[in-house]
Amino acid sequence: MYQLLRAVSHLLPLPFPAKLWLKSLALRLLPIGRLWVVLRRMPKRAVCAELGVWKGDFSQEILRVTRPRRLHLIDPWHCEEGEEYKDEPYGAAKGSQASLDGMHKDVHTRFRSEIARGIVTIHRETSAEAADRFPIEYFGWIYIDGNHSYDFIKADLQIYMPNVVPGGYIA
């Protein structure tokens, strides 16, 4: 159903079991109805991040269930060219940059109250670009739901692991 990877910096480079976990994660996604199981296990009132926001539906659930102290929403909302993206909703074959720009605007509108109160911060950039903005051991937990390919998930884990507090989570 789901797996959690306890974030500890000594896992770099990723050991063999983590590589299998990454591969299985890249091959299947949980329907949003089951994701609440993951959220219920996340620390409440933590500083957290969602890598890959899309329309903000799961971001809304993060706010409702965990009531974070800070929530960083990270997504480039960028239309990708190339054959490897033809089946992705953010691929040029299925959408346009204009539609993703509109989606980004809608997410800002959706969370305007939380942004005004300093709870939500939106970062319109790739997860790799945003990573340098955060100090080491900053996040209580991070939810990865960006590019679902093995290489991108592995990169997100490697880049963000140092940013998670000891005992924190990457899900």
The secondary structure category is: alpha/beta
General form = globular
Q: What does the average pLDDT come to? A: 81
DSSP helix count?
7
Radius of gyration: 15 Å
Assign a percent range to the helix content.
25-40%
Secondary structure: number of strands? 6
The fraction of residues in strands falls at 15-25%
Distance between the termini: 12 Å
Largest sheet: 6 strands, mixed
H/E series, N to C?
A: EHHEHEHHEHEHE
- Strand order in space, largest sheet: 1-6-5-2-3-4
Descriptive notes:
- This protein has 171 residues and is an alpha/beta fold.
- It is 39% helix and 17% strand.
- The chain has helices at 16-27, 32-41, 57-66, 97-110, 112-116, 127-131, 150-160, and strands at residues 5-6, 47-51, 70-74, 120-123, 139-144, 164-170.
- Strands 1-6-5-2-3-4 form a 6-stranded mixed sheet, with helices on both faces.
Topology summary:
Blueprint: E1 5-6, H1 16-27, H2 32-41, E2 47-51, H3 57-66, E3 70-74, H4 97-110, H5 112-116, E4 120-123, H6 127-131, E5 139-144, H7 150-160, E6 164-170
Parallel strand pairs: 2-3, 2-5, 3-4, 5-6
Antiparallel strand pairs: 1-6
Helix pairs in contact: 2-3
